[in-house]
Amino acid sequence: MKISKKNILISILPKFSISKLMKYYKFIFFIMIIITSCNKEYNNVGANLINNEFFKTSLEEIPVFVKMKKIPPYVANNIQTYQLGVLEDNIYGKSEATFLAQIVPETTEPVFGIFKQEDEIKGNENNVAVIDEEETLKEVFLDIPFFTNIEDSDGDGVINLYDIDSTDPESDSDGDGLSDLYESQNGLDPLNADTDGDGILDGEDLESINPNAGETIYELDSLLGNSQAKFKLKISELDYYLSSLEPNSNLEIYKKYYSNNEIASNFSGKVLFNDEVTINSKELVFYNVDDPNTSDVDESENVKEKLSPRIRVSLDKDFFQKNILDKEGSDDMSDYEKFKVFFKGLVIKAYDFSDPLLMILNFDQAEIRLTYDYKKYDKKGTEDDTSDDVIEEEESSYLLKMGGIKINSFKNDPYPAAIYSDINDTINNPKLVYLKGGSGVMAEIELFKNNEGLDILSEIKSKEWLINEASLSIYIDKNMLNSIGGIIEPSRLYLYSLKNNSPLLDYLIDDTSGPKKNQNKIIHGGIIELDKDNKGLMYKIKMSEHVKNIIRKDSTNVKLGLVVSSDINNSLNTEVSNSNLMKYTPRSSATNPLGTVLIGPSPSDENYDKRMRLNLYYTKINND
Q: CA–CA separation, 455 vs 63, rounded Å?
C-alpha cells in the first residue's frame, strides 16, 4: 500500500510528549531528508520505517479480573425466538421449554361459506340461494414450521449439507459418474445414483425419469440434540388471559411475563392433541382432488400446494367446530381483543423424549388451518327456472394465527454445588469461567486489573505506547468438556459495556459479513475457533478501538459483560426480574440455551499460557 509524505510521519510517530520529540529531533530530521529526496510523491517506505531499528513492536499480556453472576429470570414476552423440548447439559443440568401463545383469527367478523350467519337464519324471500349453509369442519391442523436452510454455495443444485464438495459444482455427490450440476440441470436427482430406481446408474441410463422432480431438499436448522428422537406433543387450550397491560397500573404499564413463569403448568385446559410425533425433514406436497366430471384429466396428479418441513398435527375437530365455525356472527368474533378473551390461546408441551431434543421453531409462521364443507345453492345459470337447481357441497378454509403475546416457560435443574461456589466467589480471580445462556451465567470483566485486584492502567498509560491491536483471548477448557462429554458448544460470545448495556465501539464499526447472518462482524470476532478434531479451542474478541480510547483519550475503563450469543446482529436487551446484580441481559444470550466452560484469568499452572487475558500489541521507540 502506498502512502503520502504527509501520512508517513503521522503513521510512524506515536503521540509522544514534546520532550521526547525533542530528544529524537535528529531522527525526525533524518526521516525528512529521506522523504524530500524521493522523486515520487507516493512511496512504499512506510512499512519499512516502522520496522527499522528506531521502533520496536511488542506484545504485552494484560491481566483481567473476572466475576461471575447468575442471570435472573428475564422478561420473555419481548423475545422473538422460541424453544420447545428438552436440553440435557452434562454440566448445567436439564432444561425444559414449554411454549404458550395467544391466537388471533385471520379476519374479524368472518363469514363462513357465502352468506352471513344472520342472513342464513332469516333467509331472503328474494333470493332462494340464501340457505342454511350448515358449515361442517372436515379437518383442523396445527402447523409449526422448522427453521430451514437451503444454502448452495456452488450453485450446483445440492445444498451444502449433502454436497460432497460445496465449492465445486462439478463434484459428484451420489457417485453415479455425472456431476451434481449436470444432473440438476437435466432433471435427474444429484443425490440418488439411480434416479428412477431401475437398477441402472444415471451415468449409463439414457431414459432415466425423476419421480421427485421439483422437490426441494431442506436442512433443518436450530435443532439441538437427536433430531431422530421420538417424543410426545401435547396441545392444550390456555385457561389464562395473557393481558398486555398490568391491571394494577390502571392499564398504563405493559405487563411483564418472566421466563420462569408457571402459566403452562397451572393453566392448561382442554387437551386438543396428545400423541407421539417424529421429525420429518421432507417438504409436504399436497395434490388436487380428481374431478369425476373430467374423465380425460386426472387432477390428482397436479400439485395443489407445497409446504416447507414442519410439525403438523390434527387437532380436536369438535372443539373448533363449537368455538370457531359455530361462533359465526357472535360478539366473540367481532374484534381481536374480544376473541383473545374468549379463546385465550394454546399451550404446547413436548415430553417423553426417546433422546433429548430442544427445538427452536418458527412459531411466528405457525398457524391453525380449518378446512370445512358448506352447502351452496346452485341455480345452474337459470335464474327464473328452479327445476334444475341443486344444493351442492363446497370446500373452504379459515386460518388462525399465533399472534399477540407469545412466551416460553422454562424449568431448569439447579446447578452443581461446585459451580454455585465458583459463581459466588467475588474475591478471587477464578480458575474457570462458566457461561450459560438463558437464565444462566454471565461474566463481568475488568480490564487492567491483576489477580490481587490492583489496577495497572496508570502504569500502562505512562509507557506512551502506540496501540496497534487489542484482543481478549479466551480459551475453552477442553479437558473438562471432553471428560464430561455430550456438550453442544456455543458458536459465539458477545462482549458489551455493562455501564449502559451497549456494544463496544469495535462492534459498531465492524460491518464485515460472514457466510451466514449470525456470522457477521468477523473482525470484532467472538466466533469459536476449532481444533483439528472440530472441537472448540478458543474465542478471540478484538477490541482495539475500545482499548485505545481508554489509554489515549482517558475514556472510562468500564466493566464489561461476556455472554454466549445466538445472534451477533441483535444488540438489544431484555429486563430481568428484581435483582441487585443486574437490570438487563442481552436478548441474544437469553435466546441461547447453550453453555461452556472457559479457562479463567487465574488458572492452574498447566493452563497458564491459556489464561483469559487482554493481548496488547503496541509500538514504541527503541531506546536500546
A: 10
